[in-house]
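User: Hey, quick favor. My workstation is busy. Could you predict this chain's structure for me?
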Amino acid sequence: MSIAEKIKLSEQEYLKGEETAEFKHEYLNGEVWAMVGASDNHVTIAMNLAFLLKQKLKDTPCRSYISDMKVKIEQANAFFYPDVFVSCEQKDKQNTHYKEYPVFIAEVLSPSTEAYDRGDKFKFYRQLPSLQEYWLIDAQKVSIDCFSRQSDDTWILQNISLRQEQTIIKALDIELSLAEIYEDTPA
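Assistant: No problem, here it is.
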């Protein structure tokens, strides 16, 4: 029996099942669903961003992760696999199967997940006190919606959509170019 065939799972059952599962599953309040494959653009953009972050975060306490590492959202009783995220928290280094303190999360949009990534998933991610920035990256055209948490816990949106533009991840104090993020894609 695969992990997805069971109706409701406890957090412990889910985590144990993920250790031996043939493919990844996300988890929300006892329900699980399989993750689907991604397009060439999607994978290329996520890899480019993760690579750039890894380079820029060298010799800092921060570490970038790709979509094979889970983020736990305690308040939502959820585990998600963001496309790319960064944690700078020492406590996250002790946990080898999931992280709880991301400061930055990026999701590369696909037609089947865009509404969820913009809506409910962002609602759940906002419950993470550590999260300061959330990016939604369009895989079909050059466009990134950059959401930044403000001191009053509101979120401000800035869209960046020109390949020659630069953007700053303020929480990490690093600058990235859209040309590098979208490198090797027709977008």
